[in-house]
Amino acid sequence: MRFKGEEISSLPPHSLIYRGLAEVPDERGIFPDLTVEKNLLVGAFSLKDSRARREALHWIYQVFPILEERRSFLARSLSGGEQQMLALGKGMITRPTLLLLDEPSSGLSPLMVSRLMDHIRRIHQEGTTVFLVEQNVRHALRIAHQAFVMENGRVVLQGPADRLSEDPRVKKAYLGR
Questions:
Q1: How many Cβ atoms sit within 10 Å of the Cβ of residue 154?
Q2: Hey, which residues does 129 pair with through a beta bridge?
Q3: Each residue of 105-157: pLDDT tens digit?
Q4: Predicted local confidence at residue 177, as pLDDT
Q5: What does the alpha-carbon distance between residue 42 and residue 31 come to, in Å, rounded to a whole number?
Q6: Which residue has the higher pLDDT, 1 or 65?
Q7: Residue 22 in contact with residue 94, Cβ under 8 Å?
Q8: Rounded Cα distance, 110 and 154, in Å
Q9: pTM for this prediction
Q10: Tell me: the pLDDT tens digits for 50-81?
Q11: What is the rounded CA–CA span in Å between residue 167 and residue 119?
């Protein structure tokens, strides 16, 4: 795999953050026995300067105000949607160039999925490229610019998201129309 022209397949995962790449795995990757703020600071490990860490925290709290309200709470006490926001905040605290999101809506209520997708859209508007792997096709196509439809591990359709959302095969198989 190449990122910004560099082969990164053999690099240890922690070194990727220094290159501008971050991932939020489908199991969220938060530490349930740490506070919200300590979880965010774990994500900021590559920011060596305390001022940079404070600024990064401030930015995350602007994007996710609920996390600032809950900054002293243990992560395990958060709702599923709040835990997902924490995982996103932890992944994006260093302002990566590319943020990989694996099934971020998994296990969330429909209301939380809508809110989460709004946050993902905002992350992109803030200048981060988002690579979203998502089974909630309806929501994914609403926020994506480009989309790929996979079946059995193979890409079967690709193109602009607005075009794919009108494709009869996508409508029938994924959108219930």
A1: 7
A2: 98
A3: 888 888 888 888 988 898 898 888 999 999 888 899 999 999 998 888 899 99
A4: 65
A5: 9
A6: 65
A7: yes
A8: 28
A9: 0.81
A10: 999 999 999 999 988 999 999 999 999 999 88
A11: 26
Q: Bridge partners of 6?
A: 3
- Domains defined along the chain, listed by start: 2-144 (3.40.50.300)
CA-CA-CA-CA torsion sign (168, 133, 27, 84)? negative
Cite the DSSP H helix spans in the chain.
Answer: 13-16, 36-43, 50-63, 65-69, 80-92, 110-125, 137-143, 161-164, 168-174
Pairing relationship of beta strands 129-133 and 154-160 according to DSSP bridges: unpaired
**What is the CA 20 to chain-centroid distance, rounded?**
14
Quote the radius of gyration of the chain (alpha carbons, Å): 17
